[in-house]
Amino acid sequence: MTPPVDSPAAITEDAALAAPAEAAIAVPGAAEESPFRRIAADFAASRLALLGLALFALVVLCAVLAPLISPQNPYDLAQLDVLDSRLEPGSRSGDGKLLFWLGTDDQGRDMLSAIFYGLRISIGVGVAATLCALAIGTSLGLAAAFFGGRADSFIMRVADIQLSFPAILIALILLAVLGQGVDKIIIALIAVQWAYYARTVRGSALVERSKEYIEAARCLALPARRIVFRHLLPNCLPPLIVVATVQVAAAITLEATLSFLGLGLPITEPSLGLLIANGFTYMLSGKYWISFFPGVALLLTIVSINLVGDQLRDVLNPRLQR
Fold first, then answer.
1. Is residue 125, in this structure, part of any structural domain at all?
2. Does the chain have fewer CB atoms within 10 Å around its N or its C terminus?
3. What is the distance, to the nearest Å, from the Cα of residue 196 to the centroid of all Cα atoms in its chain?
4. Residues spanned by the domain of 185
5. Can you tell me the distance from the alpha carbon of 204 to that of 211, in angstroms, rounded to the nearest whole number?
6. Residue 160: burial class (beta carbons within 10 Å; 0-12, 13-18, 19+)
7. Total number of domains constituting the chain
8. Are strands 91-92 and 99-100 parallel, antiparallel or unpaired?
């Protein structure tokens, strides 16, 4: 016998049937994750990327804490002794106070301390030049894509001319004119890098400009500055992040190359490239450590950044999402 529709049994049966449906509707909403968590989870799926991130974090930590963890200040001439020059790894100083884990160079500097301080300069120059070039290139690329016309043609033709020359050639010409110094090499690196960001953000902005949310913002008579920086720029950030990560490694490599050629930083501020150049003449005489260990530090820094950049490229590219 079927119970009446309004009976407690019928109500209980209806509630039991409705409960799973409500739960099924609520579970997907509860399982939703933020974009940041999704990106972090996808990034953590690669062990090589995590290894690169950990290695780069260690390198940055050593560079930041260089004055605290270095056995010697390689810039303080009072702490250097010519009698300690070109000592093998594991040797002690003449007074027995210092243990040179990685040996010394031709001026008696502890190579471990010199590498820590060299990392500070190389990473600092690379990051500073990348951030400045990112700001300049992004602004010009957004302006070219949003306004179009003659502004677009002029900015892109200048970028094409800049990209048609080898980066090291432009940097060599600028440093030959400006001279040596940290500020000079940062200017040279900015001049080399800005065009990459301008072309990247212009391509992304042209795609985003034709979408409906930009048309809606224009119909609301919003200022052009607000449309560009509040609506257009956030949707162009993923490719910019990938390019900036890779360009940090490129800037560090170019700075090391220029310093190796003697046109980068002065000898009083040795970066990794200059440390490699100082020991290059001693390679054939068996004193390999003067160039070898700074070269290993530079290699590990570049490899760690590239591993992080490759994984970010895969994570932030929707076409590669699985």
1. yes
2. N
3. 14
4. 47-80+106-320
5. 12
6. exposed
7. 1
8. antiparallel
* Amino acid (1-letter code) at residue 276: I
Q: Would you say residue 290 lies in a domain?
A: yes
Q: Which two tokens stand for residue 31?
A: 């399982």
Strand partners, 100: 91
Q: Which two tokens stand for residue 120?
A: 């500070």
**pLDDT attached to residue 24:** 42
Residue 43, amino acid:
F
Whole-structure pTM value: 0.83
Task: Write 261-268 long-range contacts (CB < 8 A, 24+).
Answer: 261/172, 263/172, 263/175, 263/176, 263/180, 264/175, 264/180, 264/185, 265/121, 265/125, 265/180, 265/181, 265/182, 265/185, 266/180, 266/181, 268/75
Looking at residue 123, its amino acid is: I
CA–CA gap between residue 249 and residue 129 (Å, rounded): 11
* Paired residues of 91 in beta bridges: 100
User: Could you tell me the CATH number of the domain that includes residue 296?
Assistant: 1.10.3720.10
Q: What is the mean pLDDT of each run of 10 residues along the chain (322 residues)?
A: 46 42 43 74 90 95 94 86 90 86 91 94 94 95 89 93 92 90 93 94 88 84 83 87 93 93 80 90 88 95 94 77 50
- 4 in a domain, yes or no? no
Q: Residue 256: which of 195, 286, 300 has the closest Cα?
A: 300
